[in-house]
Structure formats: structure tokens, C-alpha cells
Amino acid sequence: MFKIDHESNRIIEIKQVSFSELGFTERHHLQEWLANKPDALDEDLLIIQKEFDGFDDTRERLDLLAIDKAGNLVVIENKLDDSGKDVVWQALKYASYCSTLSKSQIADIFQRYLDKHASGQDAKALICDFLGEEDFAEVVLNPGNDQRLILVAAQFRKEVTSTVLWLLKHRVFVKCFRATPFKDGENLFLTVEQVIPLPEAEELMIGISEKENEEQSAERGQATRHQLRAEFWHATLEALKGADVGLYQNISPSKDHWLNSGYGVSGIHYSMIFNRDEARVDFALETRSKEVNKALFDHLFARREHIEALYGCQLDWRRMDDKKVSMIECAASFDGHNKECWPEMIEWLVMHVKKMEHAFEGERSDLRALVRTLLSKDRSSDIEPGAGN
User: Fold this and answer.
1) Phi then psi for 294, rounded to 5 degrees?
2) Which helix (H) or strand (E) holds 214?
3) Where along the chain do its domains lie?
4) What pTM was estimated for this model as a whole?
């Protein structure tokens, strides 16, 4: 810190000192200053208790307890010249203790504080005024697990800053403020500056943390889905084996929502589909040529009545002119993510895999010949006249 000397147009350094040099204590000085001037911590806070010890089965005391503008509880821990290595652990303990406090308990805690330090004031009325609510019944206090931590000290040890940064990354809301005393003759000064996270980076860090939290949630959801699918396919393959269906005998369970089995013609395959809301069997025409797939579909569609008679019911014929693949399907609605529905769902798949194989196995030789003919024509059309001369 520097003092500006107008006459000499120079700046003069003001001596930085320690709290211990000045004879200040944590409880009677730093704590009192912040209790009476909480906006020194760069936000509106309502101090509701000092030296709070209202925890069951412990005599520990947190320094200051506050409410922020969102109704969250804020645990403020003060240290003097050195943060100490255990300050984060202390604050986390206090936050965990406070996480169970109800709205009425918080109002009682604040009322006891007012009765001792500002007699005649009503805690519920002050809370309503602070949060901008007309009725205490509309007030929401201490929602969820959003208790916050503020640590104040002249210096923070490396193990403390490292832990705080890790906690911030995992959406535990912690701020560190450096409180520094200065002396100029008989005049004393105090600076209180936020050092973690830096104010200009705080919004960015919160945004990044929220994004990472969403990504981690999505990854956890994906892992759960993958595990669910693998479990379902394992049970389905066992059921197919038990029913003497050889179509999937060399196929392993998958994390995907589909499980394919070859038809014996390149680019054509059977599929079982496991969705959240349905089970489905497909006969897929997926050669490398869109034109070939459409021609194969048209060939089969011309034999639709015969194929559906073998299958035993109507099928969904999907030429899909805008896509490369064409499909012939049969589906049924199920609550696929409810394991209680799995036996019925698997029984349906086993039955319809059998039907699909029975309906299309007689088409194999014609489809194989048609694929060869059509692909041969495609290759011939790609050869320019005279290219072989």
C-alpha cells in the first residue's frame, strides 16, 4: 500500500505489519470487524451468529455464521497471520453441521444473536427485509447442499490454497480473502482482498464448474446406460441360446442399443433394438450402394404378402429414400429401462428373431445374386468408354 504525497508528487510506501505485532486477536478484533462490516467481503451478507456452538455432540465453535442474498448459509472462518493447515477441514466440518439446519432453527439462532447484541429486533423480520420477501413463510433458507465457505487470513498456506482450488472445481463454494494490516505513524489501515478465486475469474470458474458438472453427469448417465444395455443383451442372448436360436450364437453382449447378426450376404443383417420405450427387430439392407439397397428393398416389397405370411403379421416397410439404408421392421412398446419388464421384452425379441429369420432365410440366394448383378453394373458404369483400349 502506498500513500500519495501531493506536494512532492510521489508515492510513499506504508509499512505492512502483522496482526501479532499490533497485538490484535482473531476473536476480539478481526472477527468483530467483519461481524460489524460484512460487506468488507465484497457482498451483502447478514451476520446471524458469532462463536456459534449449537452443534450436537461437539463443543466446536465456528467464527461467524451468515446468510447470503440467495438464502444460503455462509460459514466464515477467520485466522490472523497464518491460515494454519487445518482451516479448510474445520470449515468443511462446520458446513456439514450447518447443512441440516431448518429455516425455523436458523431464525432462532439469529434471534438469540439479536437478543444478545441488538435487543428488541425481530429475526424473521430482518431476514425478510434482507431477502426482499414480505412474509417469512415465503423465505427459503439453507436450500440443498449449497452451504458456502469464506476463509479470511493474512497468509494462506499452499496446502490450503491447493485444497480450495480442488473444492471449487468440484462445486464446493469457497472464497479466500487476504486481510492485511498497515501502519502509518499512529494510523492503522486494513485491506481485505479476495485472492481465491480472483474476482475477475470467479464467474468464469463457476461457468466452467457448471459445464464440467453437466459433462460428468452426462458421462455418469452414459455409463449407467452402457451397463444397463450390456446386462440386457446378456440376458437376451442367454434366452436365445435357451430357445435354440442360433442366429446370435457367436455374438457378445454390447453397450450399444442395437445388436446385429449377419445374414450371409454382405451388407445385409438382422438387428435387435433395445430402446427406452420399445423393442424392435430389423432386417437391414445396408450395402455400400444406396441404389442397390433401394433395388433390394423393391424386390422384397414385391414379395411383401409372401414374406408377411411367413412372419405371421404385418411388417413396417421403410424404404427411406433420403437415406442410404432401407429397413423392414417389427416393433412393440415396452418400458425398456424398467427391469421388471425385461422378461416380457426378451420373450418378445426371442419370438420375433425367430420369425424374422424364418421370413427372410428363403430370400437369401435371390438377394445374393441380385447384389452381385447390381454391384457389377455399378462397377461397369464407372469404367469410361475406351478405358481398356
Assistant:
1) -70, -35
2) helix 199-242
3) 2-197, 223-381
4) 0.54
C-alpha cell at 370: 441380385
CATH class of 2-197: alpha beta
H-helix segments, 170-198: none
- List the one residue out of 176, 212, 218 whose CA is nearest residue 195: 176
CATH class of 223-381: alpha beta
Tens of pLDDT, residue by residue over 111-137, are 999 999 888 899 999 999 998 888 898
Judge whether 101 and 115 are in contact, CB under 8 Å. no
Please tell me the distance from the alpha carbon of residue 351 to that of residue 60, in angstroms, as a whole number.
Answer: 66
- Three-state secondary structure string covering 354-383: HHHHHHHHHHHHHHHHHHHHHHHHHHHHCC
Q: Give the whole-angstrom CA distance, residue 68 versus residue 148.
A: 9
239-292 pLDDT, tens digit per residue, is 999 999 999 988 998 888 899 999 999 999 999 999 889 999 999 999 989 999
What single letter denotes the amino acid at residue 67?
A: I
Is-contact 132 53, C-beta < 8 A?
A: no
Tell me whether the CATH fold assigned to 2-197 matches the one assigned to 223-381: no
Nearest alpha-carbon partner for 314 in 293, 299, 328:
328
